[in-house]
Amino acid sequence: MKNIHYNKNIPLRDKVDIFIAGGGSAGISAGVTAAREGLKVYLAESHTCFGGMATAGYVPLFMQFGDGVNFLADGFGREVYDAVKQAGGILYKDKYLSIPAEKLKRIYDTMAVDSGLDFTFQTAVVDSVVEDKSVKYAVCHSKNGTFAVEADVFIDCTGDGELSLHCGAEYSFGDENGNTMPGTLCSLWANIDWNRAEPPDKLNIAELLEKAFRDKIFTVEDRHHSGMAQTGKNLGSANIGHVFDLNAADADSLTRGFITGRKYLKEYEVFYNKYVKGYENAELAASGSLMGVRESRRIRGEYVLNIHDYISRRSFDDQIGCYCYEIDIHPGSAAKEEFEKFQNRFHTSRYQPGEHYGIPYRSLRAKGLENLLVAGRCISTDQKMQSSIRTMPGCFITGQAAGAAAAIAAKQNCRLSQININDLQNKLTDIGAFIAKK
């Protein structure tokens, strides 16, 4: 690819205490947490709403907020949990909460505005300026054009680690061969008769899929099927259909993925109409405007949280939260044996009630950059641990911690590495976070 030299003067939009890239589950948590500390916080969100995959992406369910004994995503996560339940979210198996996307958008809007957070939608981070191992400016582009924001502390909540990439941070990508989990284009469905539909845990979806495979309904015989969850009177959201060989850090790959995902959803409409009770008149109402990306860049931090930490239920002196979701690495292909390996790994990695692992503050600090934190699914982990921490409640936990840490650093005018960990843990405890140490 040929390079060109491009030089342009751009306006400085503002000087703030904290700049946040991305307003998904981690970003909204970080932004509200920091803004409530009375600091000047600006958040740039590239899409049209807060919430990311929960809203624009139509993911049907929040994974568990707790370990069956402790509410691990406490603080900001509990506020969201309570608000969604009040708005009509339905609890499945006493731990998975359905997501009414439009209502959640308004919940997040209200939380952001009430906190005093400054933010703009349709604003993407496109570059940065780094001086002496510190980020000086984030360069953004919006409907107003290209501009810069100066800040004392920066937080990358983009999911794909885009701000960190622009800052030159180290990162890992996928497994040892660079392969990542498949994506899913989640979807919204109408005209479901929930009174007649079998509950997901009682529906023999595997048998129905095999019948559909024999009838040549699907282009790809994908046995991994998460199904639908009720998100309205006659509405449901679905996490169905894998887009294999997806590279979420490549625009061409994502473009092909959207086209493939939309093609598959039409096949699922035929499947549900023909084979599944209560879905005879189900109609695909919308596909997500964001691809369901499970994995891309993992930004290298001062500590890499890893599978051994998961197995040992490890705790840390610099713990900023705890979580418990299973090791959930989706099959890399539609091969039946790949699905069987996934099932075995997923079910055998489950914790018992009350069990959890710790999340160290060091995994949120981008290595080699004094004032950059990372929150959400791109924090410093290995691939297996990333498949657990990537869920929305996990993002609430790390986002809240990043927001609190950034606020302390900004107030004390110190480096992120100089924060007294007891001060951070006490602040998180004060705002409701669950921080347990052995």
Describe the structure in your own words.
- It is a single chain.
- By secondary structure, the chain is an alpha+beta fold.
- The chain has 2 domains: 12-176 and 296-328 and 356-430, FAD/NAD(P)-binding domain; 183-287.
- It is 30% helix and 21% strand.
- The chain contains 11 helices and 20 strands.
- A hairpin with a 2-residue loop joins strand 7 and strand 8 (134-142).
- Helix 1 runs parallel beside helix 3 (101-115), helix 1 (25-35) packs parallel to helix 10 and helix 10 (392-412) packs across helix 11 (421-430).
- The longest helix has 25 residues, at 251-275.
- The protein is globular, with a radius of gyration of 21 Å.
- Pfam families: FAD_oxidored.
- This is Putative FAD-binding dehydrogenase.
- GO terms for molecular function: 4 iron, 4 sulfur cluster binding; metal ion binding; oxidoreductase activity.
- It comes from Limihaloglobus sulfuriphilus.
